[in-house]
Amino acid sequence: MQNQYVALYDYVGRTPEDLTVRAGDKLQVLNKNRVGWWFARALTGISADERGYIPANHVAPVDSIEAEPWYFPDTQRADAEKMLLAEGNSQGTFLIRQCGSDKGHFALSGKLQPPLSTQPVGHFSKLAGSWESQTLQTDPTEWCVQCLTKEFKTVKDLVEEYHSVVAGGFPVLLGKPCAKLGAPATHGLSYNTVDQWEIPRNSITQGRKLGEGNFGEVYEGLWNGISRVAVKSLRPGSMEIKDMVREAQLMKRLHHDKLIQLYAVCTMEEPVLIVTEFMKHGSLLDYLKKDMGKSLSLSDQINMATQVASGMAYLEEQNYIHRDLAARNVLVGENNTCKVADFGLARVFKNENEVYAARPGCLFPVKWTALEGLMYNEFSIKSDVWSFGILLYEIITFGLEPYPGIHNFKMMELLLQGYRMPRPPNCPSICIES
Ligand code: ACK
């Protein structure tokens, strides 16, 4: 049978046209015409023989490496460590991840315990091979790779035929695959909001208020009584609705794991609602301030900065400028996941003084803005890079205000004279591998 797929995560149908599946269920994909949502027939599981839509990023072809429970393609070293160190994982629990940005290189990360190792997680890297040839080579300079001299046709062979029976290279036999964290965000709320994203206001149930943002109040909400979302209620008059809709059209086509997804809008009456992905821990700024290093380590901080950088790199690829990158506009979810929010909205925002307020009552975010933005109102990907530098300062200082003790006006004068922010005291000058 052609087009057989396996569900990687549980999915509870959100509309009557959706399929409900459990991780491991087999499906036959019948139609891939809709972006992000495929029409399929369940072959096994509670929906066996039923037909409906499933999120395309929740399934993988049967027998592909993506379908393996131990394969964690977009996982960085620090994230791998966090997941492996989660409660309940015993020695030998492992995962295979892509190594850095190079799609042809893999690394094996596994849980270890004393006396076998003083490090709680071992990384066995440079398992090189492309998707086509998948010939593994090993790099003898890497930690504990010396013992591995055999070559394997596929990563699966290495894992299942070799490491499950021989502790070669890795000091113990591989045990169970590491548990996967939550499913990735779906492409829009459902198969039909991808094209039709003006949704009825009454499909949203407004929950508790999360806070006050640049453009109005933000609430937790439920769409169709099932999907948890964040709802931004725009302050009436804060922007021209037609400008907002135009900008939202652009934002809607942006899909990246490290960008908050815009799901839908309600623009037929005021207040205009913007419905987005919900993030459990709220803004990065508050998250950093609350933690102050109690549970976040330097490697967590670097990892968070890396996530923002990857979202911003995608924005650049899409020729899109954020204009207001700052810790207050990055949101945090489970396991220190960071996503960039509010991209593009600064452009359409207006208030009486024609200046953009970073927080209610506070004017232009001077300390995050590049000189050319301050002086000539010029914004580009380069000014976003400047703001990213300020964001790094916020991350490393656990949310301190940039340029401490310096007033906005004085700051501009100093910058024009060539002054740049010094390295904060707790920021190491050496480069640390992440
Ligand atoms: O730090 P917070 O709780 O996180 O307070 C701010 C407030 O709303 C105004 O921006 C929170 N917030 C904004 N967007 C979201 C979202 N998508 N998920 C969860 N919280 C959000 C933010």
UniProtKB/TrEMBL annotation:
Key words, A-Z: ATP-binding, Kinase, Lipoprotein, Membrane, Myristate, Nucleotide-binding, SH2 domain, SH3 domain, Transferase, Tyrosine-protein kinase
EC number: 2.7.10.2
Record bears the keyword Iron: no
Binding-site residues for ATP, renumbered to this chain: K232
InterPro entries: Kinase-like_dom_sf, Non-receptor_tyrosine_kinases, Prot_kinase_dom, Protein_kinase_ATP_BS, Ser-Thr/Tyr_kinase_cat_dom, SH2, SH2_dom_sf, SH3-like_dom_sf
Alphabetized GO MF terms: ATP binding; non-membrane spanning protein tyrosine kinase activity
Enzyme class at the top of the EC tree: transferase
Protein name: Tyrosine-protein kinase
Family membership: Belongs to the protein kinase superfamily. Tyr protein kinase family.
Gene3D superfamilies (alphabetical): Phosphorylase Kinase, domain 1, SH2 domain, SH3 Domains, Transferase(Phosphotransferase) domain 1
Localization: Endomembrane system
GO cellular component: endomembrane system
